[in-house]
Amino acid sequence: WNNHHHLFQITEKINGKILWANLHLLFWLSLIPFTTSWIGENYTAPVPVALYGFVLLMSAIAYFVLQGFIIRHHDKEFVLRKAVGKDFKGKISIALYIIGTGISFLNTWFAIIAYAVVAVIWFIPDRRIEKSIN
After folding, report:
1. Is the pTM of this model over 0.70?
2. 110: left (phi over 0), alpha (psi -120 to 50) or beta
């Protein structure tokens, strides 16, 4: 939520694509409580673990798409373009979610560890946008 807040704090212009991309992100985020509850009750079952990873993956992809639409809708000097750069954290998160979702059918614990690694990566807030604003 913090990154979403910062993303829109610096956005100067909005268009229809950005609105739809934001709704797309919010849709996937709205499924997190359901999948979290299900995995909490069935953390050794592959389907809940895979679905949880899939929802996290789709949320990460939706955020990546939203960020891209916002960047493309602004000029070359837009603060977000410089702040995000190559977006290593975003790309590694997507990769770990793909790995976790796939491996959940072989070993749910490795999948949960992959999801936890993403949480640890993002535990330290991404201050690139904040630094660019100030």
Report:
1. yes
2. alpha
Q: Which domain, by its residues, includes 89?
A: 12-133
Length of the chain as a residue count: 134
CB 57 within 8 A of CB 98: yes
**What 3 state SS string does 39-84 have?**
HHHCCCCHHHHHHHHHHHHHHHHHHHHHHHHHHHCCCCCCHHHHHH
Domain-embedded: residue 4 = no
- C-beta separation of 104 from 46 below 8 A: yes
Domain count, the chain: 1
Whether pLDDT at 3 is above 70: yes
The candidate with the shortest Cα–Cα distance to 104, out of 42, 22, 49, is 49
Average pLDDT rounded to a whole number, residues 40-61: 97
For the four alpha carbons of 25, 5, 96 and 73, in that order, the dihedral sign comes to positive
